[in-house]
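Q: Hi! First time doing this. I have a protein sequence and I read that you can turn it into a structure. Is that right? Here it is:
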Amino acid sequence: MAAIFKREFKSYFSGMMGWVLTGVMLLFGGIYFTAANLQGGYTDFTITLYSFVIVLLVFIPLLTMRSFAEEKRARTDQLLLTSPVSVPGIVLG
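A: Yes, that's right. Below is the predicted 3D structure, encoded as structure tokens:
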């Protein structure tokens, strides 16, 4: 599972996709923090963190769909599914 995580993490940040998605996610988080906490005058940072979960609910499926499509295109999905790692281990990795 650690090898799968390393390979995926390296593939995201060796190209532009990981950096762009990380930048966009941080941009949305910064805009929301500015609007909610600084301009609204709230001192509770948990409002921003709870609302940032919605942003993560959009970006995490984008990353996993890209990963699954890449595996299918490279025809390594069959190799991955026949490995001794369980399916939940593959998904977590």
